Amino acid sequence: MNRSGAGQQARDSRTRLLSAALVAGVTALVFARTLTCGFVDYDDGDYVTTNPVVQAGLTWRGIRWALVTGHAANWHPLTWLSHMADVACFGLQPAGHHLVSALLHAANAALLFLLLQQWTGRIRPAFLGALVFAWHPLRVESVAWISERKDVLSLMFGLLTLLAWTRAVRAPAGPARHRFRNLALLAYAGGLMSKPTLVTLPLAMLLLDYWPFRRIGNGAQPRDVGGTVPGRFFCRSLHGWWPLVREKWPFYVLAAASCVITFVAQKQGGAMASAEVLPWEARWANVPVAYARYLLKTLFPLDLAVPYPHPIHWPITAVLGGSMLVLGLTLAAWWLRRRHPCLWVGWCWFCGTLVPMLGIVQVGMQSMADRYTYLPSIGLSLALAGLLQHWEGRSARTTRGLTVLVGLWLVALGLLTWRQIGFWRNSETLFRRSLAVAPNNELAHNNLGYYYARQQRWHEAIAEYQAALALRPLYPDALNNMGHALTELARPAEALPYLEAAAKLQPRNPAIWNNLGNALADLNRLDEALRAYRRALELDPSHPDTHNNLGVALARQGQWNEALEHLQEAVRLRPNHASSHSNLGNAWAAQGRWAEAEHAYRRALALQPDDARTWNNLGNVLVESGRWSDAEAAYRRSLALDPRNAETHFNLAQLLLRQGRTPEARQHLLEVLRLRPDHPEARSQWERLSTLETNLHPRTAVGPTSQE
């Protein structure tokens, strides 16, 4: 190569890298608004906020757990590790988690630009195609939802797979080709370990053999990336495709293994809808409707919902209309395949990679979801870039016109994306928006209710759960949440039927058994409660809430040794949970082990310093330890937080009496009797004090005086 050619190559390389950096930068700016969003009550608890293993950060125990767990009805160890790394870096500050997802999405935009540039040979079509993908409002769910880290992470590995595979296809036979092929396989394994939706990627790679690689069709001769050049094949025959299919066999093996693992994980996790809940005819009817709706949302991304509820029975007009649209577009793409092969490849990519998410094997009860377009939309961007490449050389006027048109569309997409991100600010804004655009959305009602429950807005929560159950009476999550809310409102008898119904629908859900145990314990049916708690631990031995609640129930039965074991396990599994430390302190105190109890209470107060009850209990322990001044300070701190706590007033009165400070003690006893007139010990203490004072200071009767 001459010097001028090498210089031109270097300039082209710099231009590509600068363009990729620009794509990433502007994408990061568009999605910077996600840093103002918080966690949402939609799987973020399972993935981060209430997951004790993830909350521990990157640990050897966490790494082992990530490799073997089917938690959240999926096997995606790299996704778990990414969440652990976020916690290690940012704790539970959501902005840090959102920052990582936004940066991964920006990196994906840059990688897609590099791919489109290699496939089309042009920078401007690749630039516009990558930005249409990256700025589209349908991307918001994948990026702004922390639980969907698996989307952005898996696609990053998927794009790296395609970059390495492109180099392998175009490299000359030899070590370089094998090296790129192995890198592609390694990246593909990483993608499957982030999210199994990449199982369709080998089929997309076959499409690329038609265009842009042109390894078959139009007189091209197939070439084996493994290094073997096959003999002569008839290009249009199945025999002509066979070497291209055969060379990708390691990718098929990984995809098949991922399918099996995912099926088992989702089956065991109870994520798959049964045929009784969603009949097979309803699933097949959803396929053409979903394709049509995804296309419409791509062209007109308005009224996006989380998720889109399944109506069970689509109108026949919707099914026929969707079928005709899909069939018509397929025939048109096939008709134009020679003149515009990008249309055929892009359309097949879009349709093929959507297949696992169309609900034939139904996971959840949504008919579609924005996040499901993350990989399939690459096909549409490829088709757009290919068309722009074809038209770019026609005339400068045509090129300018198309660039302006796509540029205006990009501006509109960016503004809609910025607006859509705002709805992800918190659970209330998200699900209220979803209900505004999709009113018959039982999941949105249920999750909005859960948000209210976390705010202790119990009556609002119950109203939302009732709305969810009105739409879907056999909705296990809403039944479980309704039972939990009623239990928290001290209505365990009303809660019991809901929880029993939920347990029948999802007998392998430990959270339901835990809540059922709580209701039974509140009804003093302790033996039944213990059985429910033990069932929950059979299903999930590392469920911290159940260990905590079982420990409390065992303590109520006087089984102190076993109670301490479970309470200590609850603290070990979730060291940042104040209530577990407080309950452990209660168990130590009941056994007279004051030092251990004090340590547990102080740990609880370090995590939750405004817990009046724990300050009171700490005061009791300090009294028993003979540290009266410290005990008095603890009681007064408790009363500062909760002045209406009758028990703390009584405990402080007792301490003051022991110190001979009777007038102050009388004031607190009076307050106890004002708050709880039926408090027997306070009433008895007050009467003793009154009797004592009468005996010490007998009254002298003073009669009327007479004047002589």
From TrEMBL:
TPR repeats lie at residues 442-475, 476-509, 510-543, 544-577, 578-611, 612-645, 646-679. This is Tetratricopeptide repeat protein. SUPFAM superfamilies: TPR-like (SSF48452). The lineage of its organism: Bacteria, Pseudomonadati, Verrucomicrobiota, Verrucomicrobiia, Limisphaerales. SMART domains: TPR. It comes from Limisphaera ngatamarikiensis. The chain crosses the membrane at residues 95-115, 152-171, 183-208, 249-265, 316-336, 343-365, 371-388, 400-418. The keyword Membrane applies. PROSITE patterns: TPR, TPR_REGION.
